[in-house]
Write a structure and sequence with these properties.
Low-confidence stretches: none
Number of helices: 4
Structural class: alpha+beta
Helix content: 40-55%
Strand order of the largest sheet: 1-2-4-3
Order of helices and strands: HHEEHEEH
Radius of gyration: 14 Å
Mean pLDDT: 94
Largest sheet: 4 strands, antiparallel
Distance between the termini: 19 Å
Oligomer: single chain
Length: 114
């Protein structure tokens, strides 16, 4: 994961192709707890916390990283202590390296929360 952690997200305005299956497979090894959607257009992970407040703190911390990187995940707080994070590069209707960079950085945020 250190490769992804050392990178910064780059702005994507479209015009580039989503990652290929081979590229996704290679990057997925660096974020093993994340799942790739069947259509390969997003990755996601569910996080469980001790309580509601800790889950909300995690969301806030992820929001700060997302702003810093300029790449924003979908965040779903449910059942009061679970957060599902979904990443996709909407401009290309699929996955880019940015999604994997953010996933790696979100994993660090999670480890800091628990």
């Amino acid at each position: 994961m250190t490769d992804l952690l050392s990178k910064k997200c780059v702005p994507c305005e479209g015009g580039t192709a989503p990652l290929s299956t081979e590229e996704i497979t290679k990057l997925k090894h660096e974020i093993p707890k994340w799942s790739v959607a069947g259509d390969e257009k997003s990755i996601s992970r569910e996080f469980k916390f001790e309580d509601f407040v800790t889950a909300v703190v995690f969301i806030t911390d992820v929001a700060h990283v997302a702003e810093e990187e300029g790449h924003h995940p979908d965040l779903n707080l449910h059942d009061y202590k679970f957060v599902t994070v979904t990443l996709s590069t909407h401009a290309i209707h699929g996955l880019s390296e940015n999604d994997f960079i953010m996933a790696a950085k979100i994993d660090v945020v999670y480890n800091d929360c628990v």
